Amino acid sequence: MDFGPFFLLATLEGLVQAAVLCLTALGLSLVFGVMRVVNVAHGEFFMLGAVMAWWVATWAGGHPALGFALALLLAPLLVGAIAWAGERLVLKRVSYDPEATIVATIGMLYIIQQTTLLTFGPDARAVNPPFYFRVEFPWFGYSGYKLCVIAAALVLLLATWFLITRTRLGLIMRATRFDRETAENFGIAVGQVYAMVFALGAALAAAGAVLVVPVRQAHYLMGIDPLLLSFIVVIIGGLGSIRGTLVAALLIGLSDGIISVFFSPTLAKMISTLAVALVLVFRPQGLFGIRARA
Predict the structure, then answer these.
(1) 8 Å CB contact between 45 and 83
(2) Which residues is 218 bridged to in the sheet?
(3) Angle at 276 between CA 272 and CA 279, to 5 degrees
(4) What whole-number percentage of the chain has pLDDT above 70?
(5) Residue 90 has pLDDT above 60, yes or no
(6) Fewer CB within 10 Å: C terminus or N terminus of the chain?
């Protein structure tokens, strides 16, 4: 295959990676932006979404499209409910203290991971895609499902944008983000907003996992890479900046996919880590972050 078609194939793979990464990193950025909480367990919510997708699809039986549709609906809701319970039982009790929440979410990470290992097992398991078709380009055929992953992620991102910027609920979230005390004085239940945001962040990660699990396989350790890449994206884009998160996710996802195809996944991770180091040295607030005032 010539360089041009090969580069197109690598770009398509990068777009699939970027689409899922946008959802996962957006969930992490929302939690930090509103709650000022570094959620170390975020990757485990991604993993939990993939595992629950396998459970739901297996339980539903019948045509793969039915099981997948139920998984796409139920898995984010179930993961969001688990995250909501974790926020109420753990994070609320440590009063959202930055150091305490890091330790608390590390504890949540191990509880979720080990519980999944005990119930799901150590083996990777596949979820059948809801449909099979190939889009024929002049040089090669490409999975139609992967293209649908990109489209579905875009729809979910637009829905999240609409929720945050065009609804009363989003207005409450933004008010809580900018000034918690003022929001409380106006009668906003900040604790409930925090629980909702934490659940929404986990649900976005789970939705990304459901979309990608027919391409990869569900495994109890699959949350490590999404967590690392999400932190890389959030740091490069700017902590709490939704626009920066989406731009950085697109850049990192594309570069990771292209470099992985042409060279190796290890080199892609090394370059992403180097990019974080350069951003921290030359622009600590990130590409779209705001420098803290002295």
Answers:
(1) yes
(2) 125
(3) 135
(4) 97
(5) yes
(6) C
Spatial contact of 224 and 102, defined as CB atoms under 8 Å apart: no
Q: Going by DSSP bridges, is the β-strand pair 141-143/134-136 parallel, antiparallel, or unpaired?
A: antiparallel
If one counts every other C-beta atom within 10 angstroms of the C-beta of residue 81, the result is: 13
| Tokens encoding 203 | 């649900």
Buried b (16+ CB within 10 A) or exposed e, 149-186: bbebbeebbeebeeebeeeeeeebbebbbeebeebeee
Long-range contacts at 61-64 (CB < 8 A, ≥ 24 apart): 64/128, 64/129, 64/130, 64/131
pLDDT in tens, 237-267: 887 678 888 889 998 888 888 888 788 878 8
Q: What is the CA radius of gyration of the chain?
A: 19
- Whether the pTM exceeds 0.85: the reply is yes
